[in-house]
Amino acid sequence: MRPATEAELSEAILGSKALVVQGGGTRTIGAAVGEVLQTSGLSGVELYEPGALTLVARAGTPLTEIEAVLAGERQRLAFEVPDMRGLLRREGASTLGGVVAVNASGPRRLQVGACRDALLGVRFVDGAGQIIKNGGRVMKNVTGYDLVKLMAGSHGSLGVISELAFKVQAVPEAQLTLVAERGITEGLADLRKALGSPYDISGAAWMAGRAMIRIEGMAGSVAYRATQLRGLLGDWQEAAGDWSAVRDVTPFAARDGAVWRLAVKPTEAAGIIAALGLEAICDWGGGLIWLLDPAGSAPVRAAVAGLGSATLLRSLPGQSTPSFQPEAAGIAALSRALRAQFDPRGVFNQGIMG
Amino acid sequence: MQMPIPNATILARKAAIYARLAAVLPADALITDPAETRAYECDALSAYRCAPLAAVLPRSTEEVAAVLRICHEEGVPVVPRGSGTSLAGGALPTADCVILGVGRMNGVLETDYDNRFIRVQSGRTNLSVTGAVESDGFFYAPDPSSQLACAIAGNIAMNSGGAHCLKYGVTTNNLLGVTMVLMTGEVVELGGPWMDAGGLDLLGVVCGSEGQLGVVTEATLRILPKPEGARPVLVGFDSNEVAGACVSDIIKAGILPVAIEFMDRPCIRATEAFAKAGYPDCEALLIIEVEGSQAEIAEQLARIKTIALTHNPVEFREAEDEDQAKRIWLGRKSAFGAMGQINDYMCLDGTIPVTSLPYVLRRIGEMSVQFGLDVGNVFHAGDGNMHPLILYDANKPGDLELCEAFGAEVLKLCVEVGGCLTGEHGVGIEKRDLMKVQFAPQDLEAQLRVKDVFDPKWLLNPAKVFPLDVTASRRAG
User: Which of A111, A138, A158 to mutate to test the interface with B (most CBs of B within 10 A)?
Assistant: First the structure.
């Protein structure tokens, strides 16, 4: 099914018992069962006001199209959308709706917030076929409940997103990366030191024995902050930044094994990684960990118990571990009840989130 | 403003309810004497008042849970209250409700500079969160103008913003986690000191839910290293349109000031008469603040100046020192007080696309003539969050109603140009009956279903946010 309007989308939902909602299919986690509903028919930029930093587009619009339109005005999606195709071994064109469905956010998340923080408004069709709007296209909006946040990262379990409004960002005139050869413990300690400084870091990662810091802004300011950071941290050098590799987890793409994504307190990162003895890439100053688990048997969930959460992004054939971190009973009950409210017949992406 | 008729059964069971609450609370945490409950009869929307059945002032999450459990069993509505600074009537009681004030829970539970968060009890005031970390070079970014008094609990309930959220975001962008008590007394932990843990973003929907989904007792907040310095400039223009265009050009150029504030002529004149900040007598002025080291500030201000000069400002005033910087902010910070000197006022909070500023300001001017009430505009221009202040005389019969009618027309205009009813104050009772202007029935229904999940008996702050006729069947139980 490939509806081209919200009305068609509503009809398609009402006429179905089980749907697998798919944008480009490049970032879906886990496997749902049912008929595939393609959102690619709901495509196109509806409104773009560079002077108000606002973009509204239909959910099936390819990400590349959005990025091209924004680049034409030297603007971008600030949260730095990861390309998961290599890591998850998928083909296809990522869509804006898919980005929102998984709340996909890259290295700059630690400075500007996640996808959900840049999302101003949403239109979606729920399991009863109702076309619902929430939020809007203005920067500040506290009118009614914030279902925009609820939809971001809901993995298509509450409704099919049809339209999205984003706050966008001007591309800064200068960008600079500082690097240092460091072990993980020392590297992450340096990153935390930098993040505790007033020098407005837009990327802080550790990958393959190398700690990296990114700063962006006006040319004079970037040069000033680079000098200050080198004074603060010692033997750090300016180098070409490999931020897309951090963002897309490129080093793990061609390697075999399960891949985990952990959200933790940055100070816990080195300890968790050491305890598991797995190869790791750290982003967000240690707040985000990517783990490669070749045998698919490492006790990752036990290692993060009470310290954060772990999502299994890429599993091995036959691996039965649930993709999502099991939730505390109270939270699980609320989430289940919300899904039942928005999708009373259990049509959407059954088997992915719960 | 219509409020539900108090539940006679609850009023009749008053003594029994007091007794049950007294059994789980220390004597000084339960207030039932009508002379004392009057202190809770209103918040900062003081035109509407009603003393509650009782007020409770718990000191712990456990006491909050005990109170909610009893009220849930008794079917008693609960209105949570931070510091009572809501401009929207978010903490307005009904005669059959218990006010649950979190003000006594104001401690700092954990400060973690390495991971850049602070965990506080929700009754702590906004400014004292920064107060707890500023000597170590950190701050908490959201800065509502009531920050000296307002509580984090209320900030979370209303998803509060402030002048500096242009750069740092509003409460929801700075909130990492909460401990929250559901109406049943069940305690849940949402989020935590990490980012994007996965699962449905319940924290995101709780923030801004106006105390209708649960009572937040503890909050984990993101703290940021303080910038090295900050400096404002003042730019005066002879037309609102040109000032609006200048705002748009600055934003488009990729400069990210921490604040862009706008004042129009009525507001400038009122402020000058009151605070004597030395503002130019012009049609519109902008206060633009940038942050960083001295060199970074200079670099940004030079860029802003270049842009501003293309719009032929009547004044471009830079601050040479701290004293001059203070004088630039003085008028803006005195604006509400200055308008209050002239008369009573109602402060609106609609948000519009920045590109619609000139049109909306012109229409508000026309409406001012039509309604015969003066209005001054002072607001956060960078994000389109307007604060028209409509002057009226509370002692003049019919003036409040006229002012409310004027306000409603302005908010409808905000929605019409693609904006919303409220950018940072919340809906409360004030904008409750206008929700149908912004939302279709199914949009509202989707929100009500969220409340059905968190509070199936509709006991938490039930008469707020949504038009009463829309919620009637649910509130009836």
Answer: A138
